[in-house]
Write a structure and sequence with these properties.
With 180 residues, this protein is α+β, with helices and mostly antiparallel strands. The chain has helices spanning 2-16, 64-76, 105-111, 122-130, 143-150, 156-179; strands spanning 21-23, 27-30, 33-35, 40-43, 46-47, 55-57, 60-62, 82-88, 94-100, 103-104, 116-117. Helix content is 42%, strand content 22%. Strands 1, 2, 3, 4, 8, 9 and 10 form a seven-stranded mixed beta sheet that branches. It has a two-stranded antiparallel ribbon with strand order 5-11.
């Protein structure tokens, strides 16, 4: 098992050598997005709850989108992530795998339960599920399912405007709550 893990790390490192690297001070937008003045990054292979998303636990409902965002902020700390670009999404964001030192942010978000696998990181999701970590400690809608039912206006250019407005309002409320 340890040999497999070492081989996976080496393969991942070799893969990085052929991809464009971005390294900058990024603001954490939500649990799977980073941004600075010039660049927007979506962490590839994962899907984190939206800022306005509510999840359930034994202790009651909580703002899992805020929790995911805050977890990513803690992972990055005062560091500049190194992001390896794999392409762009339909919104023009860079799709990237990001690291702080040797910590793969994408994988760590899934393994800690604050994001779900979205084409990659399946075994990390299984670890989080078995350990009832993060989202897996209670009930939640997968982020793509939550978006489908809570942002029906998100299709098309005008829908993206409404969805963006909703995210900004949710973000504003989250900053107001954290300052109280």
């Amino acid at each position: 098992m340890a040999l497999f893990a070492v081989m996976a790390v080496v393969a991942s490192w070799l893969e990085h050598q052929n991809r464009e690297q971005l390294s900058a001070e990024f603001k954490v937008v939500d649990g799977d997005s980073l941004q600075n003045e010039d660049v927007r990054i979506r962490l590839v292979g994962i899907d984190a709850p939206e800022i306005g998303q509510i999840c359930g636990s034994a202790k009651g409902d909580y703002r899992c989108g805020i929790e995911a965002r805050d977890f990513l902020r803690k992972l990055i700390g005062d560091n500049r992530p190194d992001c390896y670009v794999e392409g762009k999404d339909k919104y023009g964001r860079f799709l990237a795998e990001c690291f702080v030192g040797k910590t793969n942010l994408n994988a760590q978000l899934v393994a800690s339960g604050w994001a779900v696998s979205y084409g990659s990181y399946g075994w990390q999701e299984q670890v989080a599920r078995r350990g009832k970590r993060g989202l897996w400690s209670g009930q939640f809608d997968r982020p793509q399912d939550w978006r489908a039912t809570h942002s029906g206006l998100a299709d098309g250019p005008s829908g993206r405007i409404w969805h963006g407005l909703w995210r900004r309002i949710s973000y504003w409320f989250s900053t107001v709550e954290s300052n109280e």
